[in-house]
Amino acid sequence: MSISTFLETQYLDLGDKRRNQRFATIVRNHLGYPEGSIPGVNRYFYGVKAEYNFYKSKLVEEEKLKAAIQLATAERAM
User: Fold this and answer.
1) Model's pTM, two decimal places?
2) pLDDT, one tens digit for every residue, the chain (78 residues)
């Protein structure tokens, strides 16, 4: 089964559409290789750096990420 990046991130609101898009890119990179490390799933150094910076940002709240993914998972399960 293929999971759409849009479906996984449709409930996400990090306050800026660029942050939401960055997370969608992170999800897309990890969907094909979920057990991979950050350097392992990003093809280029700037992708690695962007992902680390995303998670380091004070504007990105772990609870919002979890809640968005949980809602998308619950919707898929119905």
Assistant:
1) 0.81
2) 456 777 778 889 999 999 999 999 998 888 888 899 999 999 899 999 999 999 999 999 999 999 998 998 898 888
User: What's the CA gap between 5 and 23, in Å, rounded?
Assistant: 9
18, 24, 25, 67, 69 from 13: Cα distances, Å: 10, 12, 15, 10, 11
- Token pair for 6: 């849009």
Tokens representing 29 are: 């990179």
Distance, in Å, from the CA atom of 59 to the CA atom of 20, rounded to the nearest integer, reads 11
